[in-house]
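A common beginner's mistake is to predict each chain separately and then try to dock the pieces by hand. The better habit, illustrated here, is to supply every component at once so that their relative placement is modeled jointly.
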Amino acid sequence: MNPVVKHTLRFIVFVLVQALIIGQIPFPLGIHPMIYPLFILLLPFEMGLIGVMIIAFFCGMSIDFFMNTFGLHASSAVLIAYLRPELFSLFSPRDGYEGFEEGNIYQMGWRWFIPVFGIFTLVHHLYFFIVEYLSFKEILFVFQKTILSAAITLFLAIIIQVLFFKKGKKK
Amino acid sequence: MRNLIAFFRRFRIFLVFLILQILALTSYFSWVQYPRTRFFNSSNGVAATLLDAQQDVTKHFSLEEENIRLQAEIEELKGKQLENYIALSEDRIKIADTILELQFDYIPAVIVNSTYTYKNNYFTLNKGASSGIARDMGVISSNGVVGIVYDVSRHYAVVKSVLTENINIPAEIVNVHAGGLLKWEGTDKDPRTITLTGISNDIPVELGWEVVTNSQSGLFPKNHPVGTIDAIEEIEGKPEWKITVKLGNDLRRLQSVFVVENIMKLEKDSLESLFIDEFIN
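With all components supplied together, the output reads:
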């Protein structure tokens, strides 16, 4: 499939799944998983950072439309998009990212995906909840929310890829 | 000049990052203060239509519960009907009733989208300005208080739910007629409870007592149930109780609500506005 079409479709699906399904499930303990960081992580490796940030901004803003958060999702999405290349170079495979298309489980393997996406979500969720609460008094609750939500997000991200992604599609 | 261009080129990526962050964060913080941009909320056309479609599917899951609730309400209203009463004396004269005048009008609406895990939570209703809903109207369900209308578009309305930090709805405890303000403090993580503040600690309070709205704000009819007292704590260094109230309705499952229109609110507000400075001081 043409990568532009593929990522546009993914954009729509991820926004709708986040807004209409995951955002509507009543989780206990203040858990609020957010799955769209996976979409931002899966944008092609070779894509320019400015493009990634703009797409992330629109992705976050679309979710803000639905959830009445007025820009909070957009802000967190842009932050992780900005940090994406740093994270990639930190976990770079021996021969760099030559020949890889995107960072999904099948192309990069579990041992790359779990730490990279784990850090990606932790940063995203932590920033999101800190800006939302903005108080030192509730810092413990923010940590609790972050860790529990990130665990669920990671789990969902793995499930989604196992169920819907094609195996062994290397360039 | 050339240096400036070189500078911008070098920091181009960071600049884009900064601009996008400023856009997003100003929008977020100005919204938390006051709804200035109509652009970012779910009373907006596309989002609201999609949420409506989602509600069309999910509403069937809780139909049974809704039916039981409606039946209970009908039963209560039936009990108040005239034919259930026997006239004790036949020699009364009928007069046209001018003692009572309608103050509150109710507009039924359905919740199409809601949040309860954020620090400030909002609902979207499927009715808007075209059904007579306006900013700052109260929203109730048959057995509880839901929130206050925050912004309206033509066919949708966004409601600030009671699970919002400074919601400050005046309420009172029935048994002792002691009034205070309902708040959802950041510390109450539970979407089933709310805090009643401002009750002096010399007033005896017991668990299980009923909390109702009072008419101070003019947003809600008097004596509409809010919930029951669930926990009582002392606040250190303050002569007040911290009372946790269990809400009468579970906001996570609520579907049909009523928007309260106070017909006399304009009159009350315009009268009070003459003395508003004295009220504050």
